């Protein structure tokens, strides 16, 4: 029984500068397509998928380097709402950006940013509700204080204040009925008493 040839294991480690140079030379001749053939032509111990990702994400000349701008971030957010996690389609609308770069940026930055905004949006109505309750309690407390002050003022006026409605009658009954200097038969004191009584009643009315 003959032994079947074992499948050659491909290299899955980091790419070297020599491998990058060979891959770029073969793609310059045959184009960026048919990646299994490209790997064989370049005599690389790599699979076709590895060659494609290396070219698209690192070696192609039109890759845009540097941080993602605010405009690009806004576009990624809008496209993600429409396309979801279809990173290659999103990258196709951002010239120079790779799908792998956009996916990594989403997972490391944008997804956390969205979750934080959602928490803040949910917390805002609760904060407004607490502020409304606090304002209502302050108004109620102020109203109760005003009512209490009003009641205290009313009680003070009714008990300790001056009664402006009662007539001030200056009448000393002992002096009025002192007849030591009067003639017992003189009835003038009776006329004074009647006049004084009529005057007091007219003032009270």
TrEMBL record:
Residues 7-59, 60-110 form the Myb-like domain. Its main location: nucleus. InterPro entries: Homeodomain-like_sf (IPR009057), Myb_dom (IPR017930), Myb_TF_plants (IPR015495), SANT/Myb (IPR001005). SMART domains: SANT (SM00717). This is Myb domain protein 23. It is found in: Nucleus. The keyword DNA-binding applies. PANTHER family: MYB TRANSCRIPTION FACTOR, TRANSCRIPTION FACTOR MYB51-LIKE ISOFORM X1. SUPFAM superfamilies: Homeodomain-like. Residues 7-63, 64-114 form the HTH myb-type domain. Gene3D superfamilies: Homeodomain-like. GO terms for cellular component: nucleus. One of its GO terms (molecular function) is transcription cis-regulatory region binding. Keywords: DNA-binding, Nucleus, Repeat. GO terms for biological process: cell differentiation; regulation of DNA-templated transcription.
């Amino acid at each position: 029984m003959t032994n079947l040839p074992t499948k050659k294991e491909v290299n899955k480690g980091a790419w070297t500068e020599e491998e990058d140079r060979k891959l770029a030379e073969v793609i310059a001749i045959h184009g960026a397509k048919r990646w299994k053939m490209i790997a064989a032509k370049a005599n690389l111990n790599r699979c076709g998928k590895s060659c494609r990702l290396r070219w698209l994400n690192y070696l192609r000349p039109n890759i845009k380097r540097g941080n993602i701008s605010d405009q690009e971030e806004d576009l990624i957010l809008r496209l993600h709402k429409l396309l979801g996690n279809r990173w290659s389609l999103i990258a196709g609308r951002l010239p120079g950006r790779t799908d792998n770069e956009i996916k990594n940026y989403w997972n490391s930055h944008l997804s956390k940013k969205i979750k934080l905004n959602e928490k803040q949006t949910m917390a805002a109505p609760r904060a407004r509700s607490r502020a409304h309750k606090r304002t209502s309690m302050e108004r109620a407390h102020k109203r109760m204080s005003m009512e209490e002050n009003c009641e205290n003022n009313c009680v003070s006026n009714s008990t300790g204040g001056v009664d402006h409605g009662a007539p001030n009658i200056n009448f000393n009954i002992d002096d009025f009925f002192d007849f030591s200097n009067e003639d017992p038969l003189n009835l003038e004191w009776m006329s004074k008493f009647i006049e004084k009584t009529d005057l007091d009643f007219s003032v009270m009315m």
